[in-house]
């Protein structure tokens, strides 16, 4: 038996999710975002399914993907200004493209020996990205500094959770009109955007940076998407209180809590503390000491980032241990 | 310059917090809880200040403390039912006391070769702990199984954040009356309870399991406690948007989010996403690209658990790198 707390992945659900996204976004139409699962073993499965270009969020993710032999086309979809990090990035033995959204970022990337960039454009999410009106100028600066400009990216993260599909489509279209305007000014072949929430509604970007589809969380499960919840936090019951609650041996240190409590199919999660989750069993459900229960995380990415490994399961059988080797910065 | 994102600790504030708690709880009156900082280098500082008995939450914390030569008196203030984890615990070369709250727990601990236990009592927090009426019976079972029963513990975690001091005292007194009743039935020398929020108001326990006082968080800062915020998340500004926001290169993967967003002394935190925090600078504050800013975490324990190391600082000077060596389970 695997030790708890542990992240477990059901192979059939994982395979379903890979097949499902590939039907809509074959090959390079999907640029899987490794920040959601931080695991090169899972990235290899996506590569085997034909998706060989990847999105990364940190320098360590880029380094780890290159080391794992998955460096064919790595996009670091994030700004890097730190000169030491830029030096590390330029030293990676892979095809690396870096996002830039400022003149300073362009200048530092060029000085560090970065050869390919992509212009990150503000498409409505209050985060990184230049104004669409500035994108052409930044591309010119990058080319003048000798770098290859591969195109644009813009992440419509503020639209991932628009529950109504028609409203989502219309808002994504408006958001992407800014990206298309920038793309015209910038040139290059890439118009990169999207995420799991808009993987089939963002038809304006020519590649989608989705990651959460692979393993799932209860937040994305609220949308009308065809993916399955493939990952669970397996824990063991430590304590049964005669007043009616049970306590599992995994708490908020094993979970990302920014989207709230995890869910439990057989009852209610009362609350999480550092090392415990207090549960009440649903009607007809009886818990015993040391029994295993599985919780579904509310937010995948920060949950995975808290663990050292995941276990690939086929029911009770362990198929593989998957190290979460892309953690940290 | 240290790479960002990074946890930084100001030495003067750390020293102040150690001296302040020692004035109220000298020596073994404080049993520091390592789950809050997960770092044997910091535990050594507490030991040097006279606190040589420690509280742990996980088997790995116990193992790590023993390896670091801090195994004089380690309390695992948590139930363990898993036989493999119990075997590991019994193999630790240290004086280890384990919390038990069930007959099954007592039987498994004895079978694994655990020699000392303490009865964990429900004092009002819906989590682990037996009924005060069951404590004596469990102690008898443990003694009959050949184990030393060192006393009782009860964590009044539901009272840590009672803001009014007089109300806190009266509620803690009521909660601890249950623990004292159990202590009478159990015997032994330890009546262990408390935490940072009640370190000076819980005068009924004879040792206090506080940990957060050492480094602090914005949740505890709401109380009338004399501790200083010693830890900060140092990050770098990645992007400045003409619409008025700035983006720092650390997000919710570098923070515990269950108590909400971190705070920033020089402005407002708009929101955190996986790898970013979007900020708006306060009046008169100007931010530049790649500038360092420091955020204060809302919840210490899960924030520390997300990192590999902390940096001990004296202003801009790095004094020491502190590995967070007690992470995971």
Would you mind describing this structure in some detail?
- The structure is a homodimer of 329-residue chains.
- With 329 residues, the first copy, chain A, is of the alpha/beta class.
- Chain A folds into 2 domains: 11-215, Alanine racemase (TIM Barrel); 231-323, Lyase, Ornithine Decarboxylase, Chain A, domain 1, CATH 2.40.37.
- Chain A has 8 helices and 16 strands.
- At the A-B interface, strand 9 and strand 12 of A face strand 9 and strand 12 of B.
CATH topology type of the largest domain in chain A: TIM Barrel
Distance between the termini of chain A: 32 Å
For the largest interface, the chains and their residue counts are: A-B, 58 and 59 residues
From the spread of the alpha carbons, the general shape of chain A counts as elongated
Structural class of chain A: alpha/beta
Number of strands of chain A: 16
CATH superfamily of the largest domain in chain A: Alanine racemase
Q: Residue ranges of chain A: pLDDT <50 for 5 or more in a row?
A: none
Query: What is the level-2 CATH architecture name of the largest domain in chain A?
Result: Alpha-Beta Barrel
CATH class wording of the largest domain in chain A? Alpha Beta
